[in-house]
């Protein structure tokens, strides 16, 4: 009798756990409309932030640094923090929302300074400018490697739902 009660209890707990898991993942799943709304809202907030930066005489990243002053370290930092919007990684340090103005500003800056890894930045930013984020995880890891990363290697690209959820919880 004890074995039966124990077995039944274990099965009930397992069933309850599975049920809870399925309910929680369904609750977190976003519809296409919710994804679209989250992305639109985030883009509007980013536009407002960029407008404020411009009014304050700052660059699209909120710094007073000009394009001609950018270093390899700056490019790596900016691209790395933007890539976090698109990639899966156990640890992410820094976050900057991807915005066309930021990408364009960085691409234009490539012609105004001498950089060791200029071609790497150009390849990534040109792809992103065209709206191609299919290899954002590889792009992240290229920059992460240049920065001698040892924690937080990207393991894939976020789904649109995962990205929208991230944007709802992060600041621009």
Kindly state the mean pLDDT as a whole number? Answer: 86
Individual helix count? 7
Label the overall shape.
Answer: globular
Strand-pairing-aware structural class: mainly alpha
| Fraction of residues in β-strands | under 5%
Terminus-to-terminus distance: 60 Å
Strands, total number: 2
| Strand order within the widest beta sheet | 1-2
Order of helices and strands: HHHEHHHEH
Rg, Cα atoms, Å: 21 Å
The major beta sheet can be summarized as: 2 strands, antiparallel
Low-confidence blocks of residues = 19-27
Name the helicity range: 55-70%
Protein model, in words:
The protein is mainly alpha-helical and 172 residues long. The chain contains seven helices and two strands, in the order αααβαααβα. It has helices spanning 2-28, 32-55, 72-83, 100-109, 118-129, 136-146, 160-169; strands at residues 87-89, 154-157. It has a two-stranded antiparallel ribbon with strand order 1-2. Helix 3 (72-83) packs antiparallel against helix 6. The longest helix has 27 residues, at 2-28.
What are the SSEs and their pairings?
Layout: H1 2-28, H2 32-55, H3 72-83, E1 87-89, H4 100-109, H5 118-129, H6 136-146, E2 154-157, H7 160-169
Helix pairs in contact: 2-7, 3-5, 3-6, 4-5
